[in-house]
Structures are given as structure tokens and as C-alpha cells.
Design goal:
two-stranded antiparallel ribbon, histidine kinase, about 260 residues, binds adenosine-5'-diphosphate, 6 helices
Length: about 260
């Protein structure tokens, strides 16, 4: 627990730092992109070789801008709009999008608790955590497999803590991880997917959100044996207000 706390403090500091850098960086990128566009317009339609360099420059600046956007999203430490949310309805709301995301070769199995799995959280933050874990699971199963999302309510033995816990499991039958990778997955920018595919911010973001909810993330994995992420969140007593909430359109769900 102490280690998770330390990790959370580190994340928060890095988040703030990243946010500051992203902001300044964005201003610089605006200058770079603006000047590239200006220069580009001077060339008109001429077939100068310099045009190619200029287009490369513009492309790189655009990619950098996309990365900065992601950084800013990650560093936003807002607690969002906190309400009583049923994790089960979040999963139900995402199911059709997840199906599409996973494609034909990955089967989605959903096994939800009979009782509402209520927690005090921001609905879209929970969506983001589940999406990030699902995207990783998909990437870990290039040849297909099974992604299982399950929830359970657990009694709490801790008198000081909440009465119960909501446990969310995201389990895949993918490639798994060795110890060297497993140790680093929550580090910002750690990715094994290469700079074009991965940002290394998915799990850092998920970790930060879970931590702020007073929960924990645990990982079980081994090479070739798949991966299970177990999230334990403090149960919240009460009725949800957004039972009939319609799921967000895909474009609005942050990945
Ligand atoms: P990204 O997905 O951009 O690489 P993440 O922070 O989401 O960033 O994940 C970091 C790394 O953790 C991944 O690059 C991958 O090596 C590893 N990882 C995460 N989830 C899984 C999984 N379900 N199976 C295998 N490896 C995983």
C-alpha cells in the first residue's frame, strides 16, 4: 500500500510537470506549424524538393500536437463530475463499442454482479479506465482470444474503510508480460508498442484514476499465459442517478 501511495505521489508530480511542459510545448508547436504553413504557401505549386521537407516538418508537428493533447488529458487532475455510478452500467454502456473495438477474432465475455456495483466516481473516468484496459487486451491478442470483464462485490474486513469493495476484473488470453515489463507498466511513457502505436500513458492514466477513487490495481500475468487486471474500488451505498444514461458516441470516449 505504501508503495502504491508513493507511486501515486510520483504520478501526481509527473502529471503536473507534464501538464506544464505540454502547455509550453503547444505554444511552440503553434509557431512551428504556422511558419511551416506560411512557407508552404510561398512555394505555390512549384515542384521544389524543399516542399517535401516542409511537408515532413508539418507532419511531425501534427504528430507532436496529437501527443501533447494526450499529455494534457493525462495531466488533468480534475476529479470530474463525481456521482454514484454503477460499474455494471458503465460496462453495459460500452459493450457494443467494445465489441467493435475487439473485432471478430476476440470474444467478449461479460459477467456482472447481480447487485449494482456502485462506486463514487466520474462516469467518463470509469469509461476511460475500462477502454484503456480493453485496448491493451486487444493489442495483446493479435491472433484472437477472449476478453472477460467481470464484477463482484466483496465484503470488507477493514473497519476503518468502506463497508464493501467493488472488484472489477479485466482478463485477457493474450501474450502476457515478463517481470521486466510488468514492473514498469504504470510508468508514464513506458510502452513496448513503439512510438507510433503506443503512448505509454494508458495504464498511467488508469492508475491515477483508480488511485484517486481510493482503489487499487493489481496485475496477474506471465508470458504466454494472458493478463488479468484486478481493480478494487470502495463500494458506495446509494442509488445511481444515470441508470438510463445513453452511452457516449465512440468519438467522445477518450482512448
Ligand atoms: P501503451 O498501450 O500506449 O503502450 P499503456 O500504459 O497502456 O501504454 O501500457 C504499457 C505497456 O504495458 C504496453 O506497451 C504493454 O507492453 C504492457 N501491457 C499493458 N496491458 C497489457 C496486456 N493486457 N497484455 C500484455 N501487455 C500489456
Amino acid at each position: 500500500l505504501e508503495q502504491q501511495l508513493l507511486q501515486a505521489q510520483k504520478m501526481e508530480a509527473i502529471g503536473r510537470l507534464a501538464g506544464g511542459i505540454a502547455h509550453d510545448f503547444n505554444n511552440l508547436l503553434t509557431i512551428i506549424r504556422g511558419n511551416a504553413d506560411l512557407l508552404r504557401s510561398q512555394f505555390g505549386d512549384s515542384a521544389d524538393a524543399a516542399l517535401e521537407y516542409l511537408d515532413d516538418l508539418r507532419l511531425a508537428a501534427d504528430r507532436a500536437a496529437a501527443l501533447v493533447r494526450q499529455l494534457l488529458m493525462f495531466s488533468r487532475q480534475s476529479s470530474g463530475q463525481v456521482e454514484i455510478v454503477d460499474v455494471n452500467s458503465v460496462i453495459r454502456g460500452l459493450a457494443s463499442m467494445l465489441d467493435r473495438l475487439l473485432g471478430e477474432r476476440i470474444r467478449l465475455v461479460v459477467d456482472l454482479s447481480a447487485e449494482p456495483a456502485t462506486v463514487l466516481a466520474d462516469y467518463s473516468h470509469l469509461e476511460q479506465v475500462i477502454m484503456n484496459l480493453a485496448v491493451n487486451a486487444r493489442d495483446a491478442m493479435p491472433d484472437g482470444g477472449v476478453l472477460t470483464l467481470s464484477t463482484r462485490l466483496l465484503p470488507s474486513a477493514d473497519i476503518e474503510g468502506p463497508q464493501r469493495w467493488v472488484q472489477l476484473r479485466v482478463s485477457d488470453t493474450g501474450v502476457g508480460m515478463d517481470d521486466a515489463v510488468k514492473e514498469r507498466i504504470f510508468e508514464p511513457f513506458f510502452t513496448t508498442k513503439g512510438p507510433d502505436k503506443g503512448t505509454g500513458l494508458g495504464l498511467t492514466t488508469a492508475f491515477g484514476i483508480v488511485q484517486r477513487l481510493g482503489g487499487q490495481i493489481h496485475v496477474d500475468t506471465a508470458p504466454g499465459c494472458g493478463t488479468t487486471f484486478t481493480l478494487t474500488l470502495p463500494w458506495a451505498k446509494g442509488q445511481t442517478v444515470q441508470e438510463s444514461r445513453t452511452p457516449l458516441p465512440p468519438a467522445l470516449v477518450r482512448q
